[in-house]
TrEMBL record:
Domain of life: Bacteria
Species of the source: Marinomonas profundimaris
Descriptive protein name: Uncharacterized protein
Length: 328
């Protein structure tokens, strides 16, 4: 059985429910997917051995940090992981590249649901304003080198749906931040709903708040659809950003899935005005086992400032998932 880690088409990874439209699709398999291996069975290939070494290192680091801070020996299988996504965006005669990653080191012995999170930071604090990938450069290497990294200690209190991040953006000068999130949701038959509130404060970027609300309906275990709305307020810019997403997801089989999305974007100082609308299709395939994923996303974007004249783009990307749970 294939489980879905997150929804659609914007940049970065997520460990939230499939209803979130803030992040790209990432398909993870809860079973062995030997049939998704490429032709050729050279198990000593450098990329396979590299994946194994890095995955073991992530587990070892998180276990050692947890043992050092708690004084307890490891008695569990590490759930720490590293997620990497990179690729290129083609539009007209132009081409750009992007690189995103997220590392989560879970420390269950140190304190219940405590983890260290190191990840690439998007260029904006308002995900509602994003049309495509968050940080694009001429090449993947340039994007990786110019990526802003944040490191935070995250505490998750599941009984009240709260998580708190206290950390720093690795920039010049260093930019400390604090993020507080609350999340509620429920599943009622084939329906599910979710609600999120967030407050954040950055030393250099100022303070802000975000609210999101959405619902979804599972027609079958392989097909679902839904909608969500999000609003972000940024004090330093004095602007509101709003976005409405309508989506469908179709699990074709245990290796392939499709996602369809239509989004409307607005912004404004006192009242929001239309900025653009976009629609895309995203195809995903498990290329190797449950940790190497190929993604293809054609998209049309219509900007208000261009009289809603459509612009086509094509995003090709790879996602790599590393950690002890991806070792078979």
């Amino acid at each position: 059985m294939v489980c879905v880690a997150s929804l659609c088409s914007l940049p970065a990874f997520a460990d939230d429910a499939i209803s979130e439209a803030d992040f790209p699709v990432v398909v993870e398999s809860s079973e062995s997917t030997e049939g998704s291996e490429p032709i050729g069975k050279n198990e000593s290939a450098w990329w396979l051995s590299s994946h194994e070494k890095v995955s073991k290192t992530i587990g070892s680091w998180s276990s050692n940090i947890d043992s050092f801070l708690s004084g307890k020996q490891r008695v569990y299988n590490s759930e720490s992981n590293l997620q990497i996504r990179f690729g290129s965006v083609f539009g007209g005669s132009e081409r750009s590249s992007f690189f995103d990653f997220r590392t989560q080191l879970k420390l269950p012995n140190t304190q219940d649901r405590l983890s260290l999170v190191v990840e690439s930071e998007p260029d904006t604090l308002a995900p509602e304003s994003l049309r495509g990938e968050s940080s694009q450069e001429t090449t993947v290497v340039n994007s990786a080198l110019k990526t802003t990294i944040s490191a935070a200690v995250r505490y998750i209190k599941q009984d009240i749906g709260m998580d708190v991040d206290a950390g720093v953006r690795v920039d010049f000068p260093l930019d400390p931040f604090l993020r507080l999130r609350f999340k509620q949701g429920d599943v009622i038959g084939q329906w599910n709903w979710w609600q999120k509130q967030e407050m954040f404060a950055y030393y250099s970027k100022g303070v802000g708040a975000r609210y999101g609300l959405g619902t979804g309906y599972a027609v079958t275990p392989q097909f679902n659809y839904g909608a969500d709305v999000g609003v972000t307020w940024l004090d330093k810019e004095g602007l509101f950003y709003a976005r409405e997403n309508f989506f469908m997801q179709h699990l074709l089989n245990e290796k392939n899935r499709m996602a369809y999305q239509l989004s409307f974007l607005q912004s404004g100082e006192h009242s929001v005005q239309p900025d653009s609308f976009l629609y895309n299709i995203q195809y995903e395939r498990l290329i190797y086992k449950d940790w190497l994923i190929g993604q293809i996303k054609p998209q049309f974007t219509h900007e208000a400032e261009d009289d809603y004249d459509g612009t086509f783009s094509l995003t090709l990307s790879l996602a790599i998932l590393l950690g002890p749970k991806y070792l078979h």
